[in-house]
Amino acid sequence: MSGETSITIVGNLTTDPELRFTASGAPLVSFTIASTPRTYKNGAWEDGDTLFMQCTAWRRLAENVAESMSKGHRVIATGAIRQRSYETKQGEKRTVMEMDVTDIGHSLMFVTSTIRRADGPKKSEPKPARSDPWADNGTTDDPPF
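^ that's the sequence the OP posted. Answer follows.
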């Protein structure tokens, strides 16, 4: 994905991720990350303006996010940022920044975590037939996409 503007954002999920499927059956999940900068001034912490980033993840990542994350979880997400313009019903032109998430995980700043491998294919990825025993180079790991 060369040429795309990539960002990393740390913040909290504002709602539970919403898993949907396209007409062709591809899973996608939508969620918002709220990120509030904090500065230490005059012996006290002060909150800055909160950024609300609309996010989308696709395929297996979408299903893993929907299964693993919920409102309030602190996350670290990386992805491509894009700008989208639209017009409201009242005729006002608006522009929003959105993020296509390519990787996401829980922040361990305030919590601990236990990792569990997502076993087997998800609904969106049927397990491929293995007619060639050497096709997987002796590994059983699914591709990361």
